[in-house]
Design goal:
159 residues; OB fold (Dihydrolipoamide Acetyltransferase, E2P); five-stranded antiparallel sheet
Length: 159
Amino acid sequence: MGLACVGCLIFGFVTFLNAHIAFKRVEGEPYHASTFQVVRPYYQESAGIHGPHVSIYARGIVEGREEWMNLVPYLKRKVRGQRELNYWAPPGTAIRIYLFPNLKGQSRIQVIDVLPPGEASRRTAAWVLWRVPLALVILGALIFLLMRIRRVVRNIRNQ
């Protein structure tokens, strides 16, 4: 039970921090809708410390400039190889995106989704801030309850 509390704390902290950083990265930054034209999709497997890792990204053109984009948010499905990736995002595919001209790297391009940029991250951070303390209270109550039950059972055996 104590391990569940520690796991909840660590998972909650990492999830909150990741969402908060993603939100702060785009907060207040100017952006506009544009189109990412896929030139070449890439499926790359690599062996990592924690097991195999797959990167799915594309090289493309946005407003006349070459850019790189993570394709996972666009695909929203598990792709199992270069052939399958070429089917779902072949060269010439036009992807509607938000372009953040002042940012660098993968943060510059975000797929247009139901929520505005950063809002999903803000909501995830708020969700974690509400639910992790609640989970810790429930786990604490369970630990307390189990300790009381153990004490009662021990007293009954000793009589």
